[in-house]
# Entry
Amino acid sequence: MAQWHTTKFRGVRYRKHDSRKHGVVFDRYFTIRYQAKGKRIEEGLGWASKGWSEQKAALELEKLKENYKKGEGPI
# Structure
C-alpha cells in the first residue's frame, strides 16, 4: 500500500507511484483533505505528470473553502 507524504500546504498530500517516473523523480498523485458540513472530505486531484503540483492543489483547496463560505459554486 502506498505511503502518503505531507506537503508544506495544510490539507494537501501526495503518494508516489511505485515505478512510473516524471522526469528524474517518481510521479506523484495529489489529494486534498478538508471538512465541510461536519464531514471530512478527501478528493483526488491528479498526477504531477498531468500538470498538478503542491501549489496548484493548495489553490484548488482554497477555492473550494471560499466557495463553501460564500455558499456558491462547487464545494
Remarks:
- DSSP finds one helix and four strands in the chain.
- The beta strands are 4-6, 12-22, 25-36, 39-47.
